[in-house]
Amino acid sequence: MKKSDASEGQSASELISNKIADLGDWRGKTLARMRKLIKEADPDVVEEWKWMGTPVWSHDGIVCTGESYKSVVKLTFAKGASLKDPVRLFNSSLDGNTRRAIDIHEREEVDESAFKALIREAIDLNSSGKSKSSKKPKS
What we know:
Elements: H1 3-7, H2 12-23, H3 26-41, E1 46-50, E2 54-58, E3 62-68, E4 73-77, E5 100-104, H4 112-134
Antiparallel strand pairs: 1-2, 2-3, 3-4, 4-5
Helix pairs in contact: 2-3, 3-4
């Protein structure tokens, strides 16, 4: 069975759970922990599966993606450059004009309350942008 056949009919949440299980090491545990925090910050967040196997969390637009590499779990915020980050969680992709990322290495901890605040701020930004673009200027 090809990998693409295996994913047919599965929900994005199931695919993300499978990816976490398949990682089977600290990266899976880290991705699972961050997923839990995202859902705690926004119980209405939508899980998606995009770009040939990338977990994506959305609410009125992409909030962040969760990628796993050999030595890092990367959470990339679609509009990270527009978010306040007083605790300086963002430590990667800082040179771009739009995205910002948090790279988490083995045994590293992320400030949970600051991370949840960042998730909520990203959702607020998505929601405010959506409502602005749907309103027509008054004449």
